[in-house]
Amino acid sequence: MSTDRLHHKPPAIARWIYRLAVPIILAWLAITVLLTVGVPPLEKVQEERAVTLEPPKAPSIEAMQRMTEHFTETKSNTVVMIVLEGQQPLGDDAHAYYDELVRQLRADSAHVQYVQDFWGDPLTSGAAESADGKAAYVQVSLTGDPGQALANQSVQAVRDIVDRTPAPPGVEAFVTGPAAFAADLGPAGNRTIALVTALSLAVIFVMLLIVFRSVFTVILILLLVGIQVQVARGVVAFLGDLELIGLTTFVINVLVALAIAIGTDYGIFFTGRYQEAREAGEDRETAFYTTYRSVAKVVLASGMTIAGAVYCLSFTRLPVFQTMGVPTAVGMVIAVAVALTLIPAVLVVGSRFGIFEPRKKIAVHRWRRVGTAIVRWPAPILVATIAVALVGLLALIGYEPTYNDQETIPDDIPANVGFAAAQRHFPPSMMMAPDILLVEADHDMRNAPDLLVLNKLAKGVLSVPGVARVQSVTRPGGVPLKHTSIPYMLSMSNATQVQMLPFQRARMDDMLTQANEMEEMVAVMQRMYGLTRQIVSTTHDMVGKTHELEDITNELRDRVADFDDFFRPIRNYFYWEPHCFNIPICWAIRSVFDTIDGIDQITDKMRGLLENLDRLDALMPQLLEQFPTMIESMQNARTMMLTMHSTMSGMIAQMEEASENSTAMGKAFDAAQNDDSFYLPPDIFENEDFQRVLDIFLSPDGKVARLLITQRGDPASPEGIARVDPIKTAAEEALKGTPLENAKVYLGGTAAGVKDLVVGSTYDLLIAGVAALCLVFTIMLIVTRSFVAALVIVGTVALSLGTAFGLSVLIWQHIFGMQIHWVVLAMSVIILLAVGSDYNLLLVSRMKEEIGAGINTGIIRAVGGSGKVVTAAGLVFAFTMMSMLVSDLRTLGQVGSTIGVGLLFDTLVVRAFMTPSIAALLGRWFWWPLRVRPRPASSMLRPTGPRPLVRSLLMRQEER
C-alpha cells in the first residue's frame, strides 16, 4: 500500500467528526427517538395515504373516464365482484340473499356508487349466472381510485356488508375483483416486512461475524443499520403523512431492504478500511483519517449514484415506478448522511475502546493471487467472464412476463379465495374488469338503423379470435336477443296466419249458412212479390170505389143541407129550450140535428183520404216493379257467395298445407342464436324491458354506446393483451360506410389497461434507464476523472444488468416454471444500475490510489486490498435483498432475488475479474485522459525521497 496519503492533511469534515463524535451520536439518537415517537408507523401511513397505481393519462384510463362522464351511474372505475357460490344450484333463498346484499350496497352511498344488478333482472340474468347454476355474481363500482386509501376503505365496507348479512345454508359469498386485489396488496406486502427485516438482520449478523470475528463490532454495525433504517422510515413516513409523497407497499419493502443493505455495506466499508489501516501500522487517529479519506468519497459517490438513479424513477409515468423515486431517494440520502457522520463518529468512539480492532490479520494473499492471475492472463479471464455473462443473456430470449397481479399474491388472501371460487364456475376474465368498448357518436343512436350498425360492430368484435362474449344493447346477455331476426319475424307472420286458419274456416262455414238463408229469403221475396201484385190490384179497385163513395157523400151532404135550411127555425127551438136535456123527445131531436152537422166533416175527411189513396195507387205499381230486381240481385249474391265459399275453401286447404312447419325457420334461427338478419322494429323502443337494456348500454342522451367484452382466457396474459388492437380495429372496420362512420372508438378495461402498462413500462424503463446511466456515468467520471474508466464501469454494470435479469429468468421461468411479473424488470434494473456501480467504483478508486506502484501492481494491490471487504459487502447486500423471497408478494421476492443474483454476479465476476482484466488489457488507456506511467518511478530517484512521494510529485508535474 502506498504511503503518500499519510502526508496529506486530513479533511476538515473528518477532523470535526473526530472532535464531535459523541454529540453527533447523541444527535442521531435524538432524531431517531423523535421520529419514532412523533411520526406514525410507515405501514400505517401507507394504509392511510395509499395512492393508486393506475396511470392517469393512459388511453384505457381515458376511455373509462369518458364512460363515467357519459354514463351517470358511476364516476369511478374501481370495481369489485361479489360472487355467490352454492353447493347446489342457486334457488329462491339465494336470490333473496342476493337481493338483500344489493339493497344494502345501494344504501351505502358513501362507499358504493353503482351496483350492476344483472342477476336481478330476468332480461340479463343469464349473463351473471354460471352454466351449472351454482354461482352468480354482481359487479359493484366503489368510491375512490384503485389502490387509494378511500378505495381500500370502500372495499372493506363491502366486505363488512357481506360478513354481517347471513347467507342461506349451502351458499357462501366472496368479494374479489381488481379493486379487492389492489386493497389486499398492501396488507399482503406489509404483513411480512417484519419477517423480511428479521431474516435480513440474521443474515447480516452471520455474514459480519464471519468477516470481523467480533460480536461487539457486529452488534454496533447492526445498531447503526437500525438507526439508519428507522430514520429513513420516519422521514419517509413524515413526508407521506403530509401527503408530500405517495406510498405503496412496493415502496416500503424496497426502501427497508435497500436501507438495510446499503447501511450494512457502508458499515463494512468503513470498518474494513479502518482495520486495514490499523494492520498497516497506523495509529487509531491516523487510521480513522485514512479510512475517511479513502471511503467517504466512495460512499458519497455511491450514495448519490443510488439516490440519483432511483430518483430517476420520478421521471417515469407509471405510478408503480414513479412513487418509488422520491421515497427511496430520500432513504438513500439519509443512508449517506448516516454513513458520513454517524458511522465515523461511532468508529471514533469505538476505536477508543478497541472495539473495531482487527481480531485477525486480513488475508489478502488469496485475492492478491487473483489479481496476479488477472494481470498475467487478462484476455482469457475476460473471455471466461463474458462466457458466464452469456448464460444469462441467452436466457433473456425466452423471457415471457406475466401481467396478472393475482398470481403474485398469496392464495389465502380474501381476494384470491374469492377468485378461486369464481374460477370453479366462470372463466378467469369474468372476475377481472371487463374490456369496455365505447362508441361515441354525434347524434342519438336510439333508432333502428344505428342499432343495426351497433349489432354489426358487436359481431365484428366477437369474430376476433379469443373473444368469448360481447354484451351490447342488441346482445345484453352476450347472445342475440330472441325473436330479432327477419326469418323469425317472417315465421311469426306465418304463425299468425296459421292461427287465423280455424277462424277463417269457421267463417267459410258461415258463408254457406248465409247462402242457404239467402235462398230462403229469395223464396219469401217471390211470395211477397205475388202478394204485392194482388195488393196493387185491390188498392186500385178500392180507390175507384172510394171515388164513387165520395160522389155519394157529396150528394148526401147537399140534400142534408136542403133539409137543414128548411128546418133551421124549428131547430133553434131545441137549442134554446133550457130544459131540453130533461125532455127526452127534445134531446133526441137535438141529437139528430147535431148528427146532420157532422155530414160536412165526413165529406172533408173523405176528400183527404181520397188524395192519399190516389197517391198510394200511383206508388204501389212502382213498388211492385222493384221486386223482380231485388229477387234477381239476391239470387246473384247467393251465387257469388257460393262461388267465394268454394274458392276460399280451396285456398284455405292450400294455406294449411303450406303452413305446415311454418315456424321452423324462426325457431332454428333462435336456437342457433344467429343474427345475420338482425332487425329491431321501431316500436321496440316503447318496450319497458328494452328500456332497461337501453339504460345499461346507452348513455342518457343516446350518443354513447358501450360494449362489454369477455375474453376466452386471461385478459392480463400476453395473448389477451395482443387482442386489444384487433378488437379496436374490428370495431373501426365495422363502422365504415355506416351512419356511425365518424364515431369515435375507445377501449378500456383489463386487457387495454395492461397493454398501456406494457407500453408505458417500456418507455419508463428507457427514460429511467438512460437518465440513470447518464447520472452514473457523470458521477463515475467525476470520481475517477477518467472517461474510459467511467465508461468501463457503466458498460460492465449494463452487462451485469442483462446477465442478472437473464439468470433470474432462467431460475424463475425455466427452472421453477413461474413467470416473472412485469414490474420486476424496471425495478430491479434501476436498483441494480445504482448499486452495481458501487463495487466497481470502490475497486477503481483503490486502483487509482495504488497506481503509483504501476498499473499492474496497482491492480494487484487494489484487488488484494479490497477483495475481502468488497466481497463481504456484496454478499451481504445480495443476501439481504434475497431475504425478500419470504415476502408474501411474489413480485417483491422476484425483485429481491433478481437484485441479489445481479449483485452476486457483479461482486464475484464483474468486480473480481471482468473490470480488473479490462483495466489490465487497456493499460494506461484505461485512465485516459489521465497520464499515468505503466511502470513505477526509477530506483535512481530513491535518494531524492521515498519512492511513493517522488512518484506522486512526478505524476503531478505530468498532469500540469
Automatic annotation (TrEMBL):
Start and end residues of each SSD domain: 208-349
Its membrane topology: Multi-pass membrane protein
Compartment list: Cell membrane
Residue intervals passing through the bilayer: 20-39, 193-212, 219-239, 245-269, 298-318, 330-356, 377-399, 765-783, 790-814, 820-842, 869-887, 899-927
Chain segments annotated as coiled-coil in the UniProt record: none
Primary localization class, coarse: membrane
Keyword presence, Cell membrane: yes
SUPFAM superfamilies in UniProt: Multidrug efflux transporter AcrB transmembrane domain
Record key words, sorted: Cell membrane, Membrane, Transmembrane, Transmembrane helix
GO cellular component term of the entry, any: plasma membrane
UniProt xrefs under InterPro entries: MMPL_dom, MmpL_fam, Mycobact_MmpL, SSD
Domain of life: Bacteria
Family (UniProt): Belongs to the resistance-nodulation-cell division (RND) (TC 2.A.6) family. MmpL subfamily.
This protein's name: RND family transporter
Originating species: Mycolicibacterium novocastrense
Phylogenetic lineage: Bacteria, Bacillati, Actinomycetota, Actinomycetes, Mycobacteriales
